[in-house]
Amino acid sequence: MIRISSIQLFSLILAFEVGSTTLFALGIGAGQDAWIVVLFAFLVGLILLIVYTQFPKYYPYQNFAGILEGAMGKKIAKPLLFLFALYFYSQATHNFYEFGVLIKMTALPRTPLIVILYMFIFVIIYILCLGFEVLARTAEIFVPYLILFLVATYIIMFFSGNFDLGHLLPILGDGIKPVLGEVHTVIGFPFGEMVVFLMFWHYVREQQAVRKIAVLSVSVSTLLLITSLIVIISVLGPELAAYTEIPLLETLISVNIANVITNLDSISVFIIFIGGFFKTALHFSGFCLAFSWLFNHKNKNQRWVITIFAILLPLFSVYRFDGLDDQRWKGLEGGVLSILLFSFLPVLLLLLIMLKRKTSSKGV
């Protein structure tokens, strides 16, 4: 039976939430107030997280398919689970394609994109076939290095000579409207994507600790994300940050401390690799679980599901997107509504469960 520790859950959530988000200037449509956008989105994301973590309190060690079936019956639960499976696979293609393109841009410019994608999908197949606990242990090993690299980056930026907190002023200079106009996008990405962890709560050894660990991990992730935004805007300025493809990489390239500390773009490659890998692996694992539960497959048959759909993932990703701009438009501009829809569906499910529990208790 698969069981993961609280530390492993913390590591998985942090790797998933930080992902590639620290590389980009989320909410930059609000200019120098982008960090306020993230703060507002975090508060809404916290409410969603409380909803998500209520399920293991009501149904400890019960998988999401069983929860759906118990709350809504098979006739509604099966189609809904199928929609969740499609959503997770769609998100996996977004993360996977972005991950591959960024690696190509920063580390392997002469390697065909399809080769990069297949190199990494074989790693994902290998780890997921070993079991979810292996993915959790991998996160436990790599996340301390991810945090160390990010914190080191922020410290180096601060002493680089290009750091100017004046770029963050004036706070709310254009009013609250630009901030509110960006909040929904950041709620969806990355906070709304936490919905995929509904597929994994039943693996956690200490069910009563799920909420505490999840809230702590998302809070730490938000702190890292806000710090990253402040650093990017302080170094590049809000205008340049808005038009730079990978703002964190641009800030790292600009670092030159006494001609000794230079060429730090390898740090961004490490962050891309760790973040992209775990975001892809977790979304894809969520799809495989949903698909297996949908057809009542045993655990041993999940390896076939993992292998077949993973081999198709690079082909589908390359076919689906025409480039990084197209992927970002479909993921944020065009796809944010679908992300928000699946992020808020568990709220309705929880209300239904609470209503049924209240009705049954009155009946007794």
TrEMBL record:
The chain crosses the membrane at residues 7-28, 34-55, 76-93, 113-135, 142-163, 183-201, 213-236, 269-295, 304-321, 336-355. InterPro entries: Spore_GerAB. Its main location: membrane. It comes from the Bacteria. Pfam families: Spore_permease. It is found in: Membrane. Keywords: Germination, Membrane, Transmembrane, Transmembrane helix, Transport. It is a multi-pass membrane protein. Coiled coil: none annotated. PANTHER family: SPORE GERMINATION PROTEIN A2. Belongs to the amino acid-polyamine-organocation (APC) superfamily. Spore germination protein (SGP) (TC 2.A.3.9) family. This is Spore germination protein KB.
